[in-house]
Design a protein that fits this description.
Blueprint lengths: L9 E3 L3 H20 L8 E7 H6 L5 H9 L12 H11 L1 E4 L3 E4 L2 H4 E4 L9 E8 L5 E11 L2 E4 H12 L15 H11 L3 H10 L4 H24 L14 H11 L7 H18 L3 E3 L9 H12 L5 H21 L4 H4 L5 H15 L4 H13 L17 H21 L8 H14 L22
Parallel strand pairs: 2-5
Antiparallel strand pairs: 1-9, 2-6, 3-4, 6-7, 7-8
Helix pairs in contact: 1-3, 8-13, 9-11, 9-13, 10-11, 11-12, 11-17, 12-15, 12-17, 13-15, 15-16, 15-17, 16-17, 16-18
This protein binds iron/sulfur cluster (SF4).
The site of iron/sulfur cluster (SF4) has 12 residues, from loops.
Length: 463
Amino acid sequence: MYSILDFFTIGIGPSSSHSVGPMRAAKSFVDQLREHDQLSQTARVKVTLYGSLALTGKGHGTDKAVLLGLMGETPDGVDVDSIDKRIAEIDETHRLNLGGERAIEFDHENDLKFDRKTKCKVHPNQMKLVAYDAEGETLAEQVVYSVGGGFVLTAADVEAIKAAKAAGLKRPDDRPYPFRTGADLLARTQETGLPISGVVRLNEIARRPEPEFRSEVLKRWQVMQQCVEKGCRTEGILPGGLKVRRRAAALYRKLQARGQSQDPLATLDWVDLYALAVNEENAGGGRVVTAPTNGAAGIIPAVLHYYMRFCNGASEDNVVRYFSVAGALAMLYKENASISGAEVGCQGEVGVAASMAAGALTEVLGGSVKQVLQAAEIAMEHHLGLTCDPIGGLVQVPCIERNAVASVTAINSSRLALAGDGEHHVSLDKVIATMRRTGADMSAKYKETARGGLAIEVNVIEC
Ligand code: SF4
């Protein structure tokens, strides 16, 4: 079963499903070649991207991510400033250093294909990797699916999950306080007398020592802060051909110059700033923390920055509690619906992140467990049906601004819940089920294909 840390991984922009997942898949393929003593025999590797990976992969940097993974890089380890140079070297030399240890021929155009026609039956984010020996014989072949949030499943994993579901089996859960639904989570808190973060803490320290858990959480918070800082001082035009100008740096200067404001909503400008800074870094291929996806990576840090700067009680302990609650809520969505825009639209990315942030903020502001679940429910309820239609397949418009708007919605959802007693009409579990069904009913053109909505209103010249 998941750890909450799985939903906050340090990686690179612009997309968890289209860059982080494919990079991991490519690296894992090469690791397996090495394990089976096939790396030294490999003379060529071919990768084919299908479905949403093919349709929006160019704008999402999927090709670069795959090449980096083939070279043995990881999303959290790669030097983001060296990426363009390394890709240019492959294009110039037509050679790729497989696994960082074996130079093979590689023709970017022919060895990495975007197949926009073949239909994906299992999951819309499909890729196939094949390794050949010097005689052109197949050494290894793997089909994998990037299922959102940087998670990757092999075809065998998918079959095993299907078989388990058909047999009525549930995923094994060895946590001392297991939960799959909001109702389970409420029950665990009632049994233990602990808040949600307390239940999460017991589950997490059952698998690793508490100091390690805290330090992993705080490391992620530190990367989020560095990401905001970098976003606040980086100017220019974002890559991809849409010519979107970065706005965070100018807004930061304006807010600094303004000082104390009499405007009662001045705090919201700072929330907008934090989200814009993160999502501009993400769109520029910078270092971000997936939370729970990259397209929605600004919301969790924006709301936490808001809490740390403007609310009483800010402390490292409460940072850990915030991540714990947010991660527990992410698990409910992953388990019962989806966090993939290609599967359920943007409600599964920005909607989920807003719901996580709303619930987490509510706990650190002193809300009851019922108020936490209500805040999470409110934030998702008002994102139901949100489509994914990124212009030019880039994670820029509407994604960057959408994170700012959703961060404010998360804060407002928390305030609405805190104003009541936690009793509410629609349960979190019902809204999650509704999100899943709405995603299933949604036309494919609104699920990260850039073939509907805003995406067809603006022409983009890819570069
Ligand atoms: S519209 Fe939403 S789901 Fe689609 S790429 Fe942008 S942030 Fe991700």
